[in-house]
Amino acid sequence: MTQMQPIHVIGGGLAGSEAAWQVACAGVPVVIHEMRPARMTDAHKTDGLAELVCSNSFRSDDWETNAVGLLHEEMRRAGSLILRAADRHKLPAGGALAVDRDGFSAEITERLAAHPLVALERGEVAGLPPDDWDSVIVATGPLTSASLSAALTALTGERDLAFFDAIAPVVHRDTIDLSVAWFQSRYGKAGPAGTGADYLNCPLTQAQYEAFVDALLSGEKTSFKDWEAATPYFDGCLPIEVMAERGRETLRFGPMKPVGLADPHKDNKRPYAVVQLRQDNALGSLWNMVGFQTKLKHGDQVRVFRTIPGLEQAEFARLGGLHRNTYLNSPKLLDGELRLKALPRLRFAGQITGVEGYVESAAIGLVAGRLAAAERLGRTCAPPPATTTLGALLAHITGGHLLVEEAHERVSDPQGLTPDRVERPARSRSFQPMNINHGLLPPIEAPERDAEGRRLKGKDKGRARKRAVAMRALSHLDAWLATETSHAAAE
What we know:
Shape: globular
Helix content: 25-40%
Distance between the termini: 18 Å
Largest sheet: 6 strands, mixed
Mean pLDDT: 87
CATH class of the largest domain: Alpha Beta
Radius of gyration: 23 Å
Strand content: 15-25%
Strand order of the largest sheet: 6-2-1-7-17-16
CATH topology of the largest domain: FAD/NAD(P)-binding domain
CATH superfamily of the largest domain: FAD/NAD(P)-binding domain
Number of strands: 19
CATH architecture of the largest domain: 3-Layer(bba) Sandwich
Low-confidence stretches: 401-429
Number of domains: 2
């Protein structure tokens, strides 16, 4: 009996780990090629698979009214390794799903290493993969090596697109002054592992806030190389000083908003502004500054952030930083199954495809792994319906291959489920990285009344619409998963 050729996955990050897991679970051998520790990056600190280099948060876990929470639920139902590990290593974080980054990475590394169909090879794949690798998933992330980037540029004729991403500082918990700071989640909301008191809050008066903004604006920033000067920021992860440059009140309506918080040291009054910190490890000894990604030089970070009440004596386990991310012009370069049109044996997954965020990257890894495994097994694998968050992300990065040419045309999803009106995604000439959001999903009519027959209005109607979108997505996802399972059983 001829031994099945493996699928090669280049990159052991979130997308690569998820893709490899999906391939192996389908009964196909897979080789993960991870260049660390032989060659490290500017952002990674360990050789662990699926290392989290920025925040430790997977964002909201509310599947009913939040798009990323819905993506969590879809991935759980699809057997995601990343979500399984996240759930096992979750930390208190209000309504968010945050994880102990070391335990999370260790579990994924161990589970993949223990799988009999998974092989892990350390070392860089320089340039294009060897010709005899007939099925490859490139999941090299935003820090793709220069040699592979150059090879892809030569192959496609496309100039790399790029943006800057920033990392938030992490503080030692025992150096935070609890006579000033207090524990509370916004509105007391408890999340997957929370109690409603999951964040440390440092309050600022108006004078302190104004002085903080002045210090941010005057602080010395990281300078760019000539070739980086025209690179934009990703709006979902702006450095805090860039937000401050957009207006003095911007931070108070962003990461420093005080709504839903009451200072017990000040008669439970709402402060003028607040800096929140979220638990970063299982021990609770490290806390990261939420939304405080920065390009300030390290010396100025310490000076400026110690002006925040409660952080005057703060010691930093990690200071903020900045790194350049690259992504493909995917709607132009990839087909509807994530294969490179110029070389179809290469399939892409993760941030390099133009999705942004941990969960979104892993989600595209999940889809890429399933598609590659089905192709190897000679099966037909339809992409997930465009009414799901998995399908909506795929449609966004591939230019809407599931959709008709004109926007707002009615289409049926591949499983013959209910037709929906679908907005066409951004065309390739304006393609930008994007997080999952409800705007990527086909709209749906909101219920007019609740279960008790009362007419819905305003925010209640908006929440009901989002819940209807979520219920439709999960119904269509379950049908898609059942179809894939029945196809596999039949073959």
